[in-house]
Write a structure and sequence with these properties.
alpha/beta, Urease, subunit C, domain 1, TIM Barrel, 2 domains, eight-stranded mixed sheet, eight-stranded parallel sheet, 10 helices, 23 strands, globular
């Protein structure tokens, strides 16, 4: 079946294409053309002047719709992935927080099962921890935190190909060896929940840590110890010219000025949008079922209001916020949610941009940057029939 998406502004790697069309066949982009003349026999999707952009790539989300990926069940994976897909995340990594290794092993098997079953959204697994600095990690992880142990992580990595990213605190004993090994396998290796300063960040970068998770959160900035001042993780990451970052642009984790600064210094090529979404994403605030947490003001907090625990936003909200709050051009905001994360996790040969031969993962955004239609592999998975003729 041939589908033609017409009458929209198409975001291509070369910029915006007006009055063109996207031809889709057998789950692939057949052509992106500057003609919107109807093709005989094609199903026509009229974008009605809206933006036609690549499907978003979510590389850091812990769950949604009341499910967390650490449940390590097929039901949890499929429900959470589907919830984020409805908001334009046509490619996703399922993120595990700091849990025991037997739970990680179960989640690996579930991830492999779901992927083998043909789920079009799930691209693999992202592990955050359990090798985290206790001073910078959340209370909810309790006794699960530990130092990197090659007797644990090497056999796990040898047993599966579904892990695409792993985040730890690089300053821990054995952290640099971890970075060398994990990055040598072609996986995105990231710093997170860290107290590392410039020397440690430089060493980590040289050992394969090329990305900073939820930038600015769970890491120190410029600070003072007694009479002297020291650079923090934040400034050190800025000085690593090839290190990419991700920001939680939910309007709560970071103020607009910081979002602007990250974009100015790192640019769309080295900045990606990440939700860090908890299980309460896509849920009503009154459905929180854990007394430790409360959802209010569009974010999840500890019930004592001591700190933010995680986001409940979806990636389409991040795109809209980068435009509205940080004055980022829509093209770059979309790139930070598609092209850049796709490249970071090594799926940019298939995902992340609207180009001939790539998977037909497409999102249509209205003039307020709300998702109006989502295509996955050429099939509409979310949207309105009013666009289809």
């Amino acid at each position: 079946m041939l589908t033609q998406i017409i009458n929209g502004h198409i975001l291509t790697p070369s910029g915006w294409l007006k009055d063109g069309s996207v031809l889709v066949s057998d789950g692939k982009i057949l052509e992106v053309t500057n003609s919107d003349l109807a093709v005989i026999g094609a199903k026509i999707v009229d974008a009605k002047g809206m933006a036609i952009v690549p499907g978003f790539v979510s590389i850091h989300a812990h769950g949604a719709c009341g499910h967390d990926y650490t449940e390590a069940t097929k039901e949890a994976f499929e429900a959470a992935v589907a919830a984020h897909a409805a908001h334009g995340a046509t490619s996703q990594l399922a993120t595990l927080s700091a849990v025991p290794f037997d739970t990680i092993g179960k989640a690996v098997r579930v991830c492999e099962e779901v992927m083998a079953g043909g789920n079009p959204f799930l691209q693999g697994l992202h592990i955050e921890g359990p090798y985290l600095n206790r001073n910078m990690a959340g209370k909810q992880w309790g006794d699960n935190l530990k130092d990197p142990d090659p007797k644990e992580y090497k056999p796990l990595l040898e047993s599966t190909s579904c892990i695409r990213r792993w985040d730890i605190s690089p300053e821990l004993p054995g952290g640099l060896d971890f970075g060398r090994h994990v990055s040598s396998l072609g996986l995105l290796t990231s710093i997170t929940h860290t107290e590392a300063e410039y020397k440690e960040i430089r060493e980590a970068f040289e050992c394969g840590f090329t990305h900073a998770a939820h930038f600015y959160n769970a890491m120190p900035g410029f600070h003072k110890r007694r009479e002297y001042k020291y650079e923090g993780t934040v400034e050190s990451v800025y000085l690593m010219s090839g290190m990419s970052v991700e920001v939680i642009a939910d309007g709560r984790h970071l103020p607009a000025t910081i979002l602007k600064l990250v974009y100015k210094l790192k640019g769309a090529e080295l900045t990606c949008l990440a939700t860090d979404a908890m299980k309460y994403a896509c849920c009503r605030p009154d459905t929180v079922d854990d007394a430790r947490y409360v959802v209010e003001d569009g974010v999840c907090k500890l019930a004592d209001h001591e700190t933010i625990v995680g986001s409940v936003a979806t990636i389409d909200t991040m795109v809209a916020n980068m435009v509205k709050l940080a004055d980022v051009p829509l093209a770059d905001a979309v790139r930070m949610a598609s092209e850049t994360p796709a490249r970071l996790i090594g799926i940019d040969d298939r995902k992340g941009s609207l180009q001939k031969g790539k998977d037909a993962d497409i999102v249509i955004l209205d003039h307020d940057n709300n998702v109006r239609c989502v295509f996955s592999m050429g099939e509409i998975v979310e949207g309105t029939d009013t666009l289809v003729h």
